[in-house]
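Annotated sample (chain length 398).
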Amino acid sequence: MIFKRRMKSDTNKISIIQLLSLIPDSGIRKIAKRTKVDSYTKILDGKSVLYLILYSLIECQRNSLRTMEDIFNSAAFKFLFNLDTTRRVKYNSISERLSIINIDFFRKSYELIYDQFSQYYTEEEIENLRLIRVDSTMVAEAANKLKKGMNIGKKKNGKKQVKYTVAYDGKYPCLSELFTEKAYLSEDLTIPKIVYKYAEKNKNAVFVFDRGVNKREVFCNLNKQSTPFITRLRDKFRHRVINQMEDGMNRSVGSLELISDQTIQLGTPNSKQFLEDYFRLITAINPKTRTIYYFLTNVFDTKVEDILSYYKKRWDIEVFFRFLKQELNFSNITSTSENGMMVMMYMTMIAAILVLTYKRINKVGYKTAVRRISFELNEFIIKLIVKECGGDPSLVFR
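Output written by the structure step:
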């Protein structure tokens, strides 16, 4: 396949049309049939909604229900996705559809597209993708609009927020969840939930997450499941040293200096006892700021330099969140129902896969990728129209 060679080589450019052609249409149809997403609807079937949201996310700086109404009713959108030109919808119909449409259709479509694009990784990339960064981001909306959400502050008429927790493999988002209940403000609940779920299907993954996870129970559970992890601990924690693996002597480890590499047992909360589990504690200092960092892991057969390098790559997911919010409108809640928010979450992840692939192959920035994708889609529509009218598109686009 020419496309497969291009995905692997990074030497050729690729168009958004080629990327869209990679979405397995037959697979989407099968998912629609299995999930019965098209039952009791004539206009907003699953596939039409999928492409409507995907097109809207890529094409519009600030997506909304009214924007999607205008896009769906436009001749250009219908022409591009071969839809019946007589079909028209109102924004409130889109809102209602998003609130009740079968979420499994979008979840399974997202998983299918992730698997489809991931098969074009090189062997070297696959090895690097074992490192899974997990983190959360919050999005707020007016309290009177959100049916479910976590209250911010004391005012009931203020704002509510929802939490998205995502697993990111360094190339694509590989798992995501929406949380709306107040209990899930704690990262001790949300991040482990994602880690446990992803670890079930990928036994070779190494998980990296930040200091938001603090419960000793989480670390012990990961140990028992033989799930490798790397995190940081807050400054105050009780432990005892079992074995001094290395006295760092302040040798340089990247931008830090190593103080010690130890095998430890963590203290049991609210008691003088210690947990049975053994962990590895790497203590390092920033020579400029004199800040001390404590890295906790259950990976013992890897060099200190590599452990710290792995943790440093956790920042990739922060960059990914910034891309979602700035370029794909993720900070704006389009649908205020929980079901609708989940639909938009999965669709944003699908759009991200397309944009990230385009960015990587064509070696451009995030903003440039989104802008050029929009231009290419519009040019492709014009070419189709010219051809449909009996003209020669090559005379226009040379």
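Annotation: The radius of gyration is 24 Å.
Annotation: The first strand starts at residue 131 and ends at 142.
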